[in-house]
């Protein structure tokens, strides 16, 4: 009997916490060295969850809901640092490269918009205002997009740089710009994949990327189905060619601000 | 912030992300979604509504305090909660100290049990599989799962050899898995 077969039955018991003492310790020791058995254990644990369904009990009493909500309001969570930062201005949080790309994105939208307006209407105060705003944006953008501009990312001295990403999505144009900083490097055959999580339906592939030597990456205008309402964006690790459904675990996620 | 009735695994992830930001409305949604699973498991194990309610409270409070504990779990939140709840309830039943920390529970991707309809369909399937099992196999599985008996205790109670008990339990879990693989 191969070693794995020998452990296969023990793993089922382990998944049910039905192994005790020495037997359990023996399996623990084996699991520490055997990835295949760890995976087998995960699958068996998942199977045990199905047993939970065989019971169709009564609903919990109404008071239990309020009891929980009261308890959590007494323990307000300090928001953990999530991968996207709500209620901060982009300029302060993101690196220059990211800010530059946002401005370029905005500029390209402005240009398109201005061109449209010019063809549709004759010279008007509206046009003039657009032109002035465009000029202002150009002035702001110049130091950021000029090739000789320096790019520096500042991070807190106390904690190591955290991976962060910003997704800008324009539903009406199915237009997406995604920028990331401090992404951990990946093994050779792997890539990160970005997903648009719609309000209904399965996650939609939204581009594959690998970070450069500095951990920065971007995805600009990947092909997307039109008009999808996005609830969130997420990132998983996939094989280089990408996947059509996300492979768990999700490594980064952010919901709309 | 959240639209009504989002379904599925991705919706659960969005809600858990909300927990990390201290969003109490996200917690309320998760409770509404999964409280019947959690309570049902706890009640079946403990047979006592008060105790089941306490376990219900504890499981969701744990999730509130440590939403990142779910991140490593490669399965649906419903399955993960079912496993956590059953473990806690058994520990309570057998007056054991908790054997596993909630962060250590990792399980593979499961059928999506987020919706009521999916769950009742899945429940019917499970009951069907259990019903067609050999009685000795079903009872070994249920003794281990609902009563938290160890394999030696089951062997003692049934008078069966240890090896037989082990084989029965493993075969039973595989049978359940296969019912969902078609």
Q: What topology emerges from the helices and strands here?
A:
The complex is a heterodimer of chains A (257) and B (182).
Chain A: H1 3-15, H2 21-33, H3 35-51, H4 62-74, H5 90-93, H6 96-120, H7 125-145, E1 164-170, E2 175-181, E3 190-198, E4 204-209, E5 217-220, E6 230-239, E7 250-255
Antiparallel strand pairs in A: 1-2, 2-5, 3-4, 3-6, 6-7
Chain B: H1 8-20, H2 24-46, H3 49-65, H4 77-93, H5 116-132, H6 135-146, H7 151-158, H8 162-179
Helix pairs in contact in B: 1-2, 2-3, 2-4, 3-4, 5-8, 6-8, 7-8
The Cα radius of gyration of chain A reads: 26 Å
Oligomer class: heterodimer
Report, as a whole number of angstroms, the end-to-end distance of chain B: 38 Å
Biggest interface, CB < 8 A: A-B, 64 and 87 residues
Low-pLDDT regions of chain A? 81-94, 119-123
Estimate percent helicity of chain A: 40-55%
User: Can you list the strand order of the major beta sheet of chain A?
Assistant: 4-3-6-7
What class do helices, strands and sheet pairing of chain B give?
Answer: mainly alpha
| Overall residue-averaged pLDDT value of chain B | 85
What can be said about the biggest beta sheet of chain A?
Answer: 4 strands, antiparallel
Structural class by helix and strand composition of chain A: alpha+beta
How many helix segments of chain A? Answer: 7
Distance between the termini of chain A: 56 Å
Number of helices of chain B: 8
Please trace the helix and strand order of chain B, writing H or E for each element. Answer: HHHHHHHH
Q: Which H/E pattern describes the elements of chain A?
A: HHHHHHHEEEEEEE
If you compute it from the alpha carbons, what radius of gyration of chain B comes out, rounded to the nearest whole angstrom? 17 Å
Molecular shape of chain B? globular
Q: Assess the beta-strand content of chain A as a share of residues.
A: 15-25%
Helix content of chain B: 55-70%
